[in-house]
Each structure stands twice: as structure tokens, then as C-alpha cells.
Amino acid sequence: DSRLDSVVADILQHFDARLEAIDGKAMIVCMSRRICVEVYERIVAAKPEWHGDADTEGAVKVVMTGSASDPAPFQPHIRSKARQEVLRNRFRDPKDDLKLVIVRDMWLTGFDAPCMHTLYVDKPMKGHGLMQAIARVNRVFRDKPSGLVVDYIGLAADLKKALAYYSDSDQSKTGVDQAEAVTALHTALDVMRAMFHGIDYRAALAGTAADRIKILPKAIDRALSLELEDGKTADDPEGRKASKRRFMSAAANLIKAFKIASGTPEAHAVNDEVGFFAAVRAAIIKLDAAGYAGRSADDMDFAISQLVNRAVASTEVVDILAVCGMDRPDISVLDEDFLLGLKGMDQRNLAVEALKKLLNGEIAARTRTNVVKQEEFSERLRAAIAKYHNRSVDALQVIQELIALARDLREQPEDGLSEEEVAFYDALAKNESAVAIIGNEQLRIVATELVTTVRDNATVDWWRKDNIRTKMRIAVKRILKKYGFPPDLQSDAIKLVVQQAEVLARQVA
Question: Which pTM does this prediction carry?
Fold first, then answer.
């Protein structure tokens, strides 16, 4: 009994620490059905909120076979195949509350739950059976870096024997002691600490929530302006991008190492520090309008998000405009006075990234029904940022360019055309030679007639139907021909006008 008390207490402490770092599930393998039941009773005694009478409730379950002749304590855990299937489906679902199962033999073969990342083993196993059991946690899932086997019975020698039948590659990736993960965590953390030398973030982590929020912009600005390796500097071409990539790669390595080492005292000791660097990484992801490497800040797994929030004591830690003191400006206030205010900022690199995000959003919002204008302003923004990344201009110069872009964006002249007519006009006017041939005023008339024609031919979800799209193209071609649009330019014009029509239709839908 005393040994079982110790094992269960250790499992609960360890699993709680694992869940802090990596969201997922775990399995406990016991030597007998009686031990399975006793482990369950100890767990729900320590965590009564994990118990659930119904198969659809509860965070912990025993999965075992049995009969009516088994002892009374066994009976709540003996289920028909249909009831066991309910548990299978719950355990496979990463969003379901069932996070821990206790087994003797069941589910050790022929069962996969990719979200399971930890296997607690308190049962002697050998050979193929052992390999089958540890394979329960090696399935690829989201950002799960590896599976972890926690051995309470002494499986190391048997694991090495079992691995002898597998390839060298398999042997090198399996049975790695977690002490190596702790070493990797310390190495990754040392890299991050070196990058942020001079930024007193550790004092801030020991201070108040306000202290932690205050240090965040300085840390983000440092991540955006790191000196590069191999003697290169941020003045080199692509320097700014390389600086960001260097930090993001190091942060990803740190988080991965932390996840693998989670559950150890060493990982627990650096929780808040890792969470702070994860917060810097999340902020940079959010600053990139399209996300970093195809991801958004909201894509971070739940456990790391919680780590971030705890490290900086705020659920809005990545609202960088506010943290910078920029008070989320509307583009109508981006002017020379605003520029003068930025001159006193220490974090100009961060200001550039924040303005880039702001303008990306405004371009998307103000030109959402105008394909040509959206492309024009987006290209201007890309060009300005590219010059900044290549250090052709400094932070204040690029901020001036961004403010000029904002001014042009908000000062588009009124021309008497409706929003839809302007969109079609710009689509046709993209070809300057066509404008020169048919004239500006004639082009306005064409745009007005196109709007009427598109409305007359449009049906619900017409852009999904090939026959209606064909009819739309024919109608557009007829109008262009009627007003003398150059025949050799009609093909591209028709394609662009129909594309514009689809954008407008989707906005209405």
C-alpha cells in the first residue's frame, strides 16, 4: 500500500507538470486489475473532480475486462464493448476531458490516440509486448515533440534488448534518457539568455505584473535587432529578417526542449522564464499579419498559451500596439505629430513592425472590394518594409514612408462613382494602354454598365457554378467590345473583371 501511495502521488505531481507544458493525455499500465482499481481509487481521492459515474463523464477511467463474478470494487469498471467504445472515442478526442486511463493489458496494442504523450509503466514487460506498449505514445500530433515513458519497474535493460531487433535509427530515437532532455533545455535557455543579455527580464519576472508587461516591448525590440552569427551584422542585406528568424528558431527550440523535459524539477524551475520567451515569440507572430511560418498566435497549443499568460500575468500580452504606448492609433492620426512622438521611443524596430501590422489591416479593410488598389497599396507596403529590412533606410525613415502611405490610403479622391463602380474602373484602368485608347470618361461609363450587368447576371453563389461564370464572361466581353476596348487586351481584362465581381459577390454574401 505504501509503495502504491508513493507511485500514485508521483504520477499526479508529474502529470500536472506535463500538462502545464504540453496539452494531451496519459496512460498508466499496472500489473493486475486489482492494482488498476486501487490506483483509480487513490487518484479520485486526491482529485475528486476527476471522477465521473457515467462513461461520458470524468477525467480518469479504468479500462479492463471482467464478469459479474468479479469483486464489487471491480464492477463499476467492467464495461461492454459498446461502452468501451465510448471511452475509446473520448480518449482519442484531444478536446475531451478524459485525460488519463488506467489499464493492465487492454489498449496496449491495436489502439492509437495521437494526443497521448505520456505512458506510466508499473508492470514488467519484454520484447515485442514492450515495444508495442511504448509505441502508444510515439504517434505524431500537432506540436507534440516526443512521447515520454515513465518507468517505475525497471525496464531499461529489457528495452535495450527489444531495441536490438530494430534499426540503428530507431535505436537512436528510442529510450533516450530524460536527463538528456534537461541538458538540451539548459542549452536552449543559455542561448536565449545570451541573446537577451542586458535586458533585465528576470528581475521583471520576479516583480509585479506591471513590471513584466513593461519589459516585454524591450525584449521584442531586441529579438528584432539581434546581431547575427558568423561575424555578420544586422546591417547586412536581409539582416532584419535574419535577426527575426534567428530568434524564432531559438525560441522554438527552447519550447520543444521544455515540453520534452516537462515533469522534471529542472523544467519546473524555469517555467516563468520559458513562458516569457514564449510571450515574446507569440507577440512577433501576431505582429506578422499573415502569421509566422503559416501560423497565427492563436494556433499555439493551450498549454504553452497558459504558460505565456502566467509568465506575464495578462491575457492580452501580445497586443503590442497597446504595450508600446501607441494606444492602437487609427490611421487618421498617423501624421507628422505622430512621427515626432515616435522619435522619442526606444523601441523603434517594434514600432515599425506594429505600424506594418496596422497598415496591413487597414489596406485589407479599405480595399477589400477593390483588387487593384489592394495590390497597389500592399506592394508599396512590402517595398517600404523590404528597404527597412535591407537597412537601405532607418526606422524613422521607414515610419515616414508608412505614414505617407497611410495618408494616401485615407485620402483616395471622391469621384462620384459607387464603391462597386470604382472597383471595376480600377480593374480596367490597370492597363494604361487601354485607358489611352478609350479615354478616362468612357472607362467610367464602362464601369457603370459592368456593375449593372454583373448584378443582372448574378445568382446565389454564382461564382461556384461554371455555367454562370461562363455567362458572366460573355456579358463582360460584349460590353468591352461595345465600347472599343482593345481586342488583344480583352482576355486579361475579362479575367480581372470577373475576379473583381467574385470578390464583390462574396462580400455581399
Answer: 0.60
